[in-house]
Each structure stands twice: as C-alpha cells, then as structure tokens.
Amino acid sequence: MSLEVTLEFSGGAELLFDKIKSRVVALPVPRPDGAKWTIRAFLVWIRDNLLKERPELFLQGDTIRPGILVLVNDQDWELIGELDYELEAKDTILFISTLHGG
C-alpha cells in the first residue's frame, strides 16, 4: 500500500531536483517506523530520495530554508500546521523559491 502525493517545484527550486518541475511520488504506508507521514518526515524522504544537489539551498536543519514558499493544496503551509501537517492521498505540495541572484 502507498500514499501518492504530487510534488511541484518552481521559481528555481526545480534546479535542485534534476530540473523536474512536477512528479507524483508513492510513499510506503505505513512508514517504516509505523508513524504517519507528516511534512517533517516527508522532507527527510525528499532529501534522501530526490534532492540531487546543494541541500543547503532547500533545507535548513529539519525544515525548509527561508525564502522558499510552501503550499499544500494551494494553501500556505503556515495555516495548516507546517511540519506537523499529516499528508493525505492526492495532496499537492508546491515549493516556490523566492531567492534570486543578481
């Protein structure tokens, strides 16, 4: 059994993920530790399975680096619990980088 969610990257964040802007991922259910999938756990999975380069541009500690907007189903993640939000089937998680060089 798996939990399918859609990941989207924009604003340059996709460059850290082989320039892939959108993908559907299937997460094992239950998680190996038996817990539910939260965004906190999902970020670890993303780091270990999808992030191809320069993790410091995407993650800071156990969270998203400042300057990256996170939307879950078109809602700011700050409104739904941020790292503690429990993923649901068919969720769409969008990471938009607002950091730009000059």
TrEMBL record:
Name assigned to this protein: Ubiquitin-related modifier 1 homolog
Location of the protein in the cell: Cytoplasm
CDD domains, per database record: Ubl_Urm1
Subcellular location, principal: cytoplasm
Protein origin, superkingdom: Eukaryota
Species the sequence originates in: Capsaspora owczarzaki (strain ATCC 30864)
PTM description: C-terminal thiocarboxylation occurs in 2 steps, it is first acyl-adenylated (-COAMP) via the hesA/moeB/thiF part of the MOCS3/UBA4 homolog, then thiocarboxylated (-COSH) via the rhodanese domain of the MOCS3/UBA4 homolog.
Keywords: Cytoplasm, Isopeptide bond, tRNA processing, Ubl conjugation pathway
GO annotation, biological process: protein urmylation; tRNA thio-modification; tRNA wobble uridine modification
